[in-house]
Amino acid sequence: MTEKKLTKGNIALAEGAIQAGCRYYFGYPITPQNDIPEYLARNLPKCGGTFIPAESEIASINMVMGASASGKRAMTSSSGPGISLMQEGISYLAGSEMPAVIVNIMRCGPGLGGIAPTQGDYNQAVHGGGHGDYRNIVLAPGSVQEMFDLTIKAFELADKYRNPTMIIADAMIGQFQEPCRLVPEKPVEFPEKPWALTGRRGREPRLLKSLYLGDYEQEEHNLLLKQKYDEIQEKEVMVEMQRLDDAELIIIAFGTPARVAKTAISMAREEGLKVGLIRPITLFPFPTKQIYEHSKKAGKLLVVEMNTGQMVRDVRIAAHRDASISFYGRPGGGFPFPDDVLAEIKKALDGGPR
Amino acid sequence: MYYDVIMAGFGGQGIQTISQIVALAAIRRGLNVTFLPSYGVEKRGGRTNVTLVIADEEIGSMVTNHPRCVIAMDTIAVDKYRDQVARKGLLIANTSLVPESMLDRNDITPLALKCNDEALALGSVKLSNMIALGAFLQKTKILGFDDVEAVMDEVTPERLKHTIPANLEAIRRGMEIAGNGTV
C-alpha cells in the first residue's frame, strides 16, 4: 500500500490536477483557495505545464476555454466573487461543449463577504450561475483524499461528457489536513478528443461554438445537451450511504456538515437513536433515486448545510411525498458542531419538520 | 480509540509545530488524524490554534467544542478554551504566562506548567512548546516518546536540524514534570 502523507485539502486538489494530466492553469488570487495556485505555480512548470497568473477571473476562464479548445486539460480555481465573474465563460464552455475543471473553495457572501467556510454557492454551481439552459457536473469532496481523487475524476468526467465540471468545497475541506494517498487509485483515463482544434491540415475543419441562429438550431442543440445531462444523471451519481438499514431518520449533507454529521450520528446511535447518512458526492447528478428510496423507508430526513437552505430544495424534490423534511443551516461562516447536529436529530425525531 | 485536542496560543510559540509532530507520529502508528489549523488573516504575533482528532476508527467531525484536552500557551487561549474542555478532560496551561487562578474548573484536570521558565532553564524559551508536548504525551499516553522521536527529523527544516537534541530533551523534561505531578 502506498504511504499516506499528511496533506492539506487544497494541496491534495492541486496535486490531483497535475496527476490528472492538467498542464494548464490560469487563475487570480483569492482566499481561501490560494494554496492551489501557489502549489501549481511551483510544480506545474516542473512537469512541462504552464501556469499563468491571469489579470482577472474573466481572463482566467477564457484562457481555460482556449486551452480546452485545443484539447488540453485545463483548470482554474477561485472563490465567491471570482467564480461569479467566471459565469459567462462557464456558460460558453457548456454551450460549446468544452471540458474544463473549475474549482470553487467557497467563501461566504453575498458580495465580498468573508473568508470563513460556507456552502453558500451550492445554487450557483448546481443550478446554473451563468445564463442559458445548461448544467455543470458538480463534485463535492468530503475529505482530503477526495480532494485528490475527485479532481482526477473531474477531469475524466469533463472530457468524457465534454462538459464543464465544478468542484465545490467549503474552506474547511480546503484548509484542513488528513493523511492522503497522493497517487491515483487506478490509471487516469484520457478519452480521445476528435473535436479538438489541433490544426486542420489533412482533415476536415472543426468548429467549436455556442451561437445558433438558424430556425430551431438552438432548440435542437438544447435537446442534445438535455440528452447528455440525462445520461450523466443516469450513469454518474456518486453517493456515500451509512447506517441506513434500520434508520428512522436520515441526515443528508455534503462537505464539512457531512463529516460533523457522522460524529453526531455515532453519538445518537450510542443513545439508541436510529440515524443514518446520505452524503451526495456528486451534486449534479444528484442522488435523487437513493434519496427517494431511502426516504420512503425511513420517513424522516434532516438536511444540514452551511447556508440558509439550498440543497434542501433538491432533497424536497427527490424525497418521497410522505417523508418529513427538517433543515438545519449555519450560514455566513458559521458551522455546526456535533452537539448542534445531535440536538437537531432529537428535534427532528420528536417533532418532525419545522 | 478516539482523542481530540485543541492547541492554542500566539504565533511564534510553536503550536503548529507540536501539532504537526503529534499528527505525524499518530499517522506513523497507523491512526487516523484530522488537523484543522486556524487560517485566514495571518500575521506574526496573531492568534494560532489547531484542532487535532486522532482515532483508530473513521474520523467524522474535524471540529469539536468539547475537546478531551486543551493545551493553552497563553492567557487568551485559556480564556477562550478553558470552558470547552470536556468533563474529566485535561487542561495544560502555560503558567509562565497564565495566572494559576484562571484554571478554576473542578470537573477537569488542570495542569499548571511553567513552560517558558522550564524552557529557559534548558537554555532557550523557544523550547516551551516542547515542554507542553512532553506533558501532553505523559498525561494522555496516546503516543509515546519513541513515536515522537521518530518523526522529529521529518518535521524539522534543514536549517534547524541541530535543534533536535535540545527539543527531545525538552520533551523529556515536560514528561518528567507531568509524571511527578509537580505543578
Short description:
The complex is a heterodimer of chains A (354) and B (183). Chain A has helices at 9-19, 35-43, 57-69, 80-85, 87-95, 122-126, 144-161, 171-175, 217-235, 256-270, 288-298, 311-318, 338-351; strands at 5-8, 24-27, 50-53, 74-78, 100-108, 114-117, 137-139, 164-170, 177-180, 239-242, 249-252, 275-280, 282-284, 300-305, 324-329.
Question: Strands, helices and their partners?
Answer:
The complex is a heterodimer of chains A (354) and B (183).
Chain A: E1 5-8, H1 9-19, E2 24-27, H2 35-43, E3 50-53, H3 57-69, E4 74-78, H4 80-85, H5 87-95, E5 100-108, E6 114-117, H6 122-126, E7 137-139, H7 144-161, E8 164-170, H8 171-175, E9 177-180, H9 217-235, E10 239-242, E11 249-252, H10 256-270, E12 275-280, E13 282-284, H11 288-298, E14 300-305, H12 311-318, E15 324-329, H13 338-351
Parallel strand pairs in A: 2-3, 2-4, 4-5, 5-8, 7-8, 11-12, 11-14, 14-15
Antiparallel strand pairs in A: 1-9, 5-6, 7-13, 10-12
Helix pairs in contact in A: 1-2, 1-7, 3-5, 10-13, 11-12
Chain B: E1 2-10, H1 15-28, E2 32-37, E3 47-55, E4 69-72, H2 75-81, E5 90-94, E6 109-113, H3 115-121, H4 128-140, H5 145-155, H6 164-180
Parallel strand pairs in B: 1-4, 4-5, 5-6
Antiparallel strand pairs in B: 1-3, 2-3
